[in-house]
Amino acid sequence: MTNSQPLAERMRPRSLDTYVGQQHIVGPGAVLRNAIENKTIPSMILWGPPGVGKTTLAAIISHQLDRPFFNLSAINSGVKDIRDVIGKAKSIKEKNEKQPILFIDEIHRFSKSQQDSLLGAVEQGLVTLIGATTENPSFEVISALLSRCQTYILNPIEKDDLITLLSKALKEDEVLNKMAIEIKEHDALLRLSGGDARKLLNLLELIANASEPPVIVTNELALNFVQQHMALYDKTGEQHYDIISAFIKSIRGSDPNAAVYWLARMIEGGEDPLFIARRLLILASEDIGNANPNALLLANTCFQAVNAVGWPESRIILSHTVTYLAASPKSNTAVDAINRAQTLVKHTGNLPVPLHLRNAPTKLMKDLGYGKAYQYAHNYEHNFAEQEYFPDKLSGTKLYDPGKNPNEEKLREKLRSNWKNKYHY
Q1: Residues 113-121: what's their mean pLDDT?
Q2: Band (295; pLDDT cuts 50, 70, 90)
Q3: When comparing pLDDT for 208 and 324, which is higher?
Q4: N or C: which end of the chain has fewer CB within 10 A?
């Protein structure tokens, strides 16, 4: 099979009607679709995992609005490239032509000075900026630029949509539709792609290229193919997310040996040390939590130290933190508690705050009973007074259940001592 364009590029949607997924922002009546149809799009940040259509969506917006489209990648573009584009945008404005769209892929990889150079163009309306990022823009995009952009979150593409995409490629692609290819089993393809449409199509194309017709795609064939063609770690490539996943799972699984191995893979691949340190911060609460509260303190200190030191010495600080977190007792009760609480809120709505828990800054509020009968905990023995803190409808609800580890067993005993039979820990 020969074609200058990869399959993912040949199958790239050209309109919102053929765009797969993200119905919450571009489906009928959704906020971004309305903005596109009304030709009033703001500068924006598209935040989501790889292969969910960020670049495609930017191109569709430009095409649908019939506006000039400038495309830069933060990996290989610098301030000079930005200035060149801004110069072209000024020329377009002087001619009273349509405002161009400036798309910057992986905008989180731009330095502060590079992001600063975009501010003036956005403020003056020379360009509509569309930045794509796989990282939380709150951490990676400077606040001045972020405040001038609307952030849209793109979700991983659903399983049914991915299967539809595979079927569509076999039927409509000018190369694949001439070949004898049958996808007998989808599970391995979907699992290996991880919701990344580009990765999914690339994998299908690679298998078709390497197999003798007729090609019958099974789970076994897909798994064997990937094992035989595994690429080296590349911080800008598809294995970036596979490696960080293996890294996190090794720490969660309490294996410091495997964890430091995956850390070394990232270091040798040139990964950003702050990217690694941020993941450790999240893990310290998500997977260790109250089983060892010092884990979060160490992870936060690690993040600050890495930010101050940089490579190559940061490798030692990261190794120190990784081995400690991997060897630490584990608990996911903090994330379980907030998940239960958010689910409860969604199901019960905005229940009124009990009167005794409300502040009473005015006489009228006091007369209405605000704050009445509230028991100030510090006025009681052991700094505890048994009273209701939930809305009446939720009285007795249990959301935090301490884990079975020494530190949380102490918390369990303390809660049982305070609340006796009200909370059945």
Answers
A1: 82
A2: very high
A3: 324
A4: N
- Residue 236 is predicted with a pLDDT of 47
Q: 297: buried, middle or exposed (CB in 10 Å: 19+, 13-18, 0-12)?
A: exposed
Work out the pLDDT band at 235, boundaries 50, 70, 90. very low
What CATH number matches the domain at 159-228, 3.30.565.10, 3.40.50.1380, 1.10.8.60, 3.40.225.10? 1.10.8.60
| CATH code assigned to 352-419 | 1.10.3710
Other CB atoms within a 10 A radius of the CB of residue 421 amount to 7
Rounded CA-CA distance 215/206 in Å is: 12
Q: What is the pLDDT of residues 40-53, one digit of tens each?
A: 888 999 998 887 88
Task: Judge contact between 229 and 203, C-beta under 8 A.
Answer: no
DSSP of 76-135: T--HHHHHHHHHHHHHHHHTT-PPPEEEEETGGGS-HHHHHHHHHHHHTTS-EEEEEESS
Please state which architecture CATH assigns to domain 21-153.
3-Layer(aba) Sandwich (3.40)
Confidence of residue 366 (pLDDT cuts 50, 70, 90): low
Q: In sequence order, what are the residues at sequence separation of 6 or more whose Cβ sits closer than 8 angstroms to the Cβ of residue 8?
A: 197, 198, 201, 202, 205
